[in-house]
Amino acid sequence: MRRRLVQEPERTEINVSPLIDMVFILLIFFIVATSFVNEVGITPKHKDTASSSNNLEEPLAFDLPASGQLLQNGMSIGIEQVAPLVRSNPGEKAPSVLVRVSPGARAGLATQVMDQAMLGGAQAVKLSPLAQ
Amino acid sequence: MRSRSRNIENTEADAINVSPLIDVVFILLIFFIVSATFVTLPGIEVTRPQAVTGKALEKNAVIFALSGKNEIKYAGSSVQLEEIPGLVEQASKDKGKPVVIQVDQWADASILAKIVAQARKKSAVVSIATRKPRT
């Protein structure tokens, strides 16, 4: 009689196995559904042409023809010259940069030009496609 | 036969205490629920251009990819340039999600420029995915 009374609370334990099963299924679902995208990138800030009424100056333009060169004001320059050119731009402190790309130019080069322009402190970088 | 039934009795007698296991599993579960963002990946791997000013981008973004063969990819399928504003609007559901473009460095820059222009119609922040240059 006494022995039975002692054993009573042990026998009425809640069975947790279905709970564990459920939690494991949820856990596996969320592990599979989670995609750890850690993307690094550049975000060229872009001003709308309508809002920049106070800025009538020509932006600093770089041209990327299909030949793979980088032209500034008609002259071929190297990628490492972009940042100094942006930094030493006369007039405005932080110039806007326009990157004009022709069909056939490489996206890698265009991205690097934008990257270098932002390194040089450009306030806005715009990528614009040129028609043939 | 007899020995087997005794074995079962034995295991019932000294059952493993599962409470710490449940605790740990719950913590893992909560971690994965909180960190789940459910982004739609474009489904192709591209060689990102190098950039020194690259910063970590928002994880919860609408991601497009431009392959080296100049195909625009979204959620595993090819899309046309004109479909991009609609797709951005659909995916961002008035929450103003940023757009990330994964571009192959050998892709055509004029197509990239057109994608950026299309995405800007519906999203204020459009980023280009890059990779850190090797030092």
**Which range best describes the helical content of chain A: under 10%, 10-25%, 25-40%, 40-55%, 55-70% or over 70%?**
25-40%
Q: Compute the gyration radius of chain A: what is it?
A: 31 Å
Mean pLDDT of chain A: 78
- Biggest chain-to-chain interface with counts: A-B, 43 and 55 residues
What does this 3D model show about the protein?
The complex is a heterodimer of chains A (132) and B (135). With 132 residues, chain A is of the alpha/beta class. Helix content of chain A is 35%, strand content 18%. Chain A has four helices and six strands; from the N terminus they run ααββββαβαβ. A three-stranded parallel β-sheet of chain A has the order 2-5-6, covered by helices on one side. A two-stranded antiparallel ribbon of chain A has the order 3-4. In chain A, helix 4 links the parallel strand 5 and strand 6. The relative contact order of chain A is 0.17. By secondary structure, chain B is an alpha/beta fold. Chain B is built from four helices and six strands; from the N terminus they run ααββββαβαβ. A five-stranded mixed β-sheet of chain B has the order 4-3-2-5-6. The interface between A and B is large, with 43 and 55 residues.
Give the topology.
The complex is a heterodimer of chains A (132) and B (135).
Chain A (H helix, E strand, L loop, with lengths): L1 H10 L5 H17 L6 E3 L17 E5 L6 E2 L2 E2 L5 H6 L8 E6 L5 H13 L4 E6 L3
Parallel strand pairs in A: 2-5, 5-6
Antiparallel strand pairs in A: 3-4
Chain B lengths: L1 H12 L5 H17 L19 E2 L5 E5 L5 E3 L2 E3 L4 H9 L6 E5 L5 H12 L5 E5 L5
Parallel strand pairs in B: 2-5, 5-6
Antiparallel strand pairs in B: 2-3, 3-4
Structural descriptors:
heterodimer, A: 132 residues, alpha/beta, Nucleotidyltransferase, domain 5, 3-stranded parallel sheet, two-stranded antiparallel sheet, 4 helices, 18% strand, B: 135 residues, 2 domains, elongated
